Amino acid sequence: MPLPTLHELYVKLFTTEDKFNFHKTLGIFCLLHFAFRFAQVGERDMGFTSSKATLVCIAVHTLLSVSSLIFKIPYKRIASGYRIWPEYRLHSIVFALRSLSMMLLIWVEKYYDMQPQHHWNAVIVICTLALADLSSWYVGPNGRSNTIREVEAPPMMRYAFSVMQFHATMGVMLGVRRFSTQFIYVWIVQLNAFLMTLRRKNLAPHMGLLCTYGFMLAFGFVVCSHEASTIGAFVMVNTLANTAAVLRLGFRTPKYLLWAGMAALTHVARKTVEEVPMPPLPTPRAWWKFWAKAPAVPLEPSAEPFPYWPALYAASVVGVLCVGYVKISVANEYDKLKAKEAKELKESNRASMEPSGPSCATRAG
């Protein structure tokens, strides 16, 4: 599709529903804020500190998600899938608040010099599940849809997207005490909602936006894996995430039972990795000095690593691949069946439109 003009962008994005441009102002601020923070990926934790400025940033992103409720959008999901609809909008708010709540928890611990309160990680995850279910109940059965499974995309892409959701949830469950880990999730959720809005207004192509979302998930996975590796938990957290994906996607384990069990496993597994002291957050400094680096702090392991994590990780990867093979094969067969039915229906409609009697030329002869 051709690129939209600036006038077309303005007309379709600046609507009368947001009379005072409140949501759009927040959106522009958040886009600039994402760029500012991503320029500081690494040991400086994207420049976040235990200052009041971090608290303000959390509040602004919260307002951005909540203020999206002012817009009227189609009640049911469009067939092509990658367009925002009411159920997904509510889910987007819930999952953005999940990571923003984790950021707030980290801020409280840093500000008041507290030890990590890891039990709140599980509370936030379980509450998120409950709120997501409440959102689906609120929109009613006619407005419900499976976000990933019903998107118009190749089966392999859909499966990869589904697995990444489990890695994101395990990232929250583990709860590395770094703001950047959770801020990446906020970026993915909020920017994806904007991409869906662009698609709904026909300002961007379907597959291009899907590929952009895939890149965002991959980038988030790399950043969060790096953050987990700073406490020696890279293999552990990915093993548990893969295990959760296999249990849910392969064996249909009830999600509340699954994540309650993963919370218990994470509590035990956290003690088996190398627990290294995290570098202290950089002291607040003038905002224009964002290039300055925090002083390096030597990291010394304080616990013996669990020797079986690599083997368990390899087994979990094999499990994800096996479940994926089955899921993708079934999805391919289903897509072929749908294509065949659509072709037969098209031929049937074409045949019904053809005249049943002799043609004009036959009658004239």
TrEMBL record:
Query: Does Transmembrane appear among the keywords?
Result: yes
Q: Where is this region: Disordered?
A: 344-365
Which keywords annotate this record?
A: Membrane, Transmembrane, Transmembrane helix
Membrane-spanning residues: 20-39, 51-70, 90-108, 120-139, 206-224, 231-251, 308-328
Q: Do the record's keywords include Transmembrane helix? A: yes
The molecule here is called Transmembrane protein
